[in-house]
């Protein structure tokens, strides 16, 4: 499977969010490499747990920023 690339199409214009999105993609690519490389279930599980925790934190921060800046589609975004 090909790796995800964080390119200009994915930038949202906020440095913090763009950096966090890039880190999420790094996690996904690392996880894919581990699965493709037949890594141990333990290692895959550790990376997956890291991705889950980072994603939870990311969504919390993202929603706080959207609320603070009165993002017009805030309600629609948090329901998705």
UniProtKB/TrEMBL annotation:
Pfam families reported in the protein's UniProt record: Hemerythrin
GO molecular function per UniProt: metal ion binding
Keyword annotations of the record: Iron, Metal-binding
Location of the Hemerythrin-like domain: 14-75
Coiled coil: none
Protein family per UniProt: Belongs to the hemerythrin family.
Cited NCBIfam families: hemeryth_dom (TIGR02481)
Protein name as it appears in the record: Hemerythrin
């Amino acid at each position: 499977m090909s790796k995800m690339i964080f390119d200009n199409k994915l930038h949202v214009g906020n440095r913090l969010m763009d950096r966090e999105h890039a880190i999420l993609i790094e996690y996904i690519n690392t996880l894919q490499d581990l699965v493709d490389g037949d890594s141990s279930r333990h290692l895959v599980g550790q990376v997956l747990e890291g991705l889950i925790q980072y994603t939870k934190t990311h969504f919390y921060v993202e929603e706080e920023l959207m609320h603070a800046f009165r993002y017009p589609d805030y309600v629609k975004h948090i329901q998705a």
